[in-house]
Amino acid sequence: MQAWLCDNPVGVEALTWKNLPTPTPGPREVLIEIHAASLNFPDLLIVQNKYQIKPPLPFVPGAEYAGVVQAVGSEVTHLKPGQPVACLSGTGGFATHTLAPAALCMPLPPGFDLVDAAAFIMTYATSYHALIDRAALKAGETVLVLGGAGGVGTAAIQIAREAGAQVIAAASSEEKCALCREAGAHATINYSEHAPAGTLRDAIKQATDGKGPDVIYDPVGGDFAEPAFRSIAWRGRYLVIGFAAGPIPSLPLNLPLLKGASIVGVFWGDFAKREPQANAAMLQTLAQWYLQGKIKPVIDRTLPMAELPQAYAWMGSRQVKGKLVLVNPR
């Protein structure tokens, strides 16, 4: 097998493409032949030693991938060789093969494209858990999706629309706003027209006829968080997804008091560990939505697995719309 190996987490430039022995699965593991793996923001942080999870060295990055089971461990009963799966195991994806905990593998129904599957679990599970579970989104409510053109943003737009919400998406260019509308947003706000961030609040108010959004989905953080929160509707829910902009905002706590609003943390990874049955049911629902054509990952582009450094560079340019996916030759 071949894999991108990180033995010194100082950045992407330290990764090396190496030949390694193909491993044998342990009792609760499966060996997966990887067809495709998506690039997510944590994949950058982990090779820079900035992620909250720090795997022992050396490790193969790549949190999310899809492929076909080649071999199963002695205690694995729900998977079998030849079965297509998607997996979000945190590491191992940027390779031709990997060992994965069987419990973290999502069996794929017939007709589920493996490139789509590689870009599915993290964004759609996070967005569904956030909007449906944590925010208890109701039909007819208004959702504002910040960073709407990214992977989780486009997934959130699709899920909120499927839930019957009115969806407003914010993005950093007119091209990205157009993508948000294609993904299902009813209206868009171009960040670049509201720098400094002070006028963003006015734009949100205008887009919601003065009421403000009932739910704000924020995977970005940074300077736009406070003006967005100041626009929230009475009893609104502000979903803290992540901080792609870098800085972690500090919100004045009088703001939720004045709006009767809630700041709601969203940590899908821990939810999946603590409530595995609820998570499995959610993934099954999402898989059915995919097969019914209700949701579909937005793929910016696919690149050969050997071009991972170029994929990292493209992600760092902030030009990615949806997800980047690395594919192995078949």
Please sum up the structure shown.
The protein is an alpha/beta fold.
Note down, in words, how this protein is organized.
With 330 residues, this protein is of the alpha/beta class. It folds into 2 domains: 2-120 and 297-327, Medium-chain alcohol dehydrogenases, catalytic domain (Quinone Oxidoreductase, Chain A, domain 1, Alpha-Beta Complex), CATH 3.90.180; 123-268, Rossmann fold (3-Layer(aba) Sandwich). Helices cover 30% and strands 24% of the residues. Strands 3, 4, 5, 6, 7, 14 and 15 form a 7-stranded mixed beta sheet that branches. A 6-stranded parallel beta sheet has the order 10-9-8-11-12-13, with helices on both faces. Strands 1-2 form a two-stranded antiparallel sheet. Strand 14, helix 11 (308-316) and strand 15 (323-327) form a beta-alpha-beta unit. Helix 3 (121-134) crosses helix 4 and helix 3 packs across helix 10. The longest helix is centred in the C-terminal third of the chain and has 16 residues, at 276-291. The two termini are 14 Å apart. The model has no long low-confidence stretch (mean pLDDT 93).
